Amino acid sequence: MAEQPFDPYYSRGEVSNSDLTALKFALNPQLNFVKEEDKRKAFHLGTLVDALVTEPEKCNHYAMTVDDEKYTEKDWKWGLDRLAVLKKQATKDRFLDFVLKNAVGQKTFINPHMKMEYQGFEFELPVRCKFDWWLGEFGGDLKTTAATSQEQFEAQIDFVDWDRSRAWYMDLTHSIDPRYGNQDFIFAVSKTKKKVFYKKIERGDELYLRGREKALEWAFRMWCLL
Fold first, then answer.
1. Residue 8: inside a domain, yes or no?
2. DSSP secondary-structure letter at 67?
3. Is residue 6 part of a domain?
4. For residue 193, what are the domain limits?
5. 3-state DSSP assignment of residue 83
6. What pLDDT score was predicted for residue 226?
7. CA 54, CA 187: separation in Å to the nearest integer?
8. N- to C-terminal Cα separation, the chain
9. Is 64 a member of any domain?
10. Higher pLDDT, 10 or 1
11. Based on the structure, what is the number of domains in the chain?
12. Alpha-carbon gap, residue 49 to 187, rounded angstroms
């Protein structure tokens, strides 16, 4: 889904993972089967959950707004319910508890000259990313998911290219400082169930390599068009 002009980050000129998604759908419209209205709704609700969890200072609980974005009472309650599910899971998951208490929310990284190689061809792009959570040397992503099992969640990682986004973020930060981006993680809270799913990614593992191959392919295609 193409990024929305929610804050100044989205109007920057560097290439983001969402730009790669937009290019993929532009070149393969048959893959873009989700209606635009549904995309906007998903982004709207995702913004709410992200803000409640990672940037609570942006949330006005009386006006039911995140910055200037207005929510219905039903949607606001839904977002608070997702937050409650995460907090409850954190009482049983020490790492999630640590993340919720210590991570920096919405941390941006930019490399104006990131060097990449795709099938032996070297190229360079200005790139950016924004982590939901940043823990000093690595970060992670917060998602909402329709999955009801770990198996479905892991299949979704591949199907919707979350593996690509994690590899993109890992490689971008690693290009800035080799201490960064050697691992990553995803926590996904169920949209309908009281469940939280987790996946750790390490540099060099199967998920990382699969995502990196996707990222390099679409970054190269982007470079060809710029």
1. no
2. T
3. no
4. 14-225
5. helix
6. 87
7. 13
8. 20
9. yes
10. 10
11. 1
12. 12
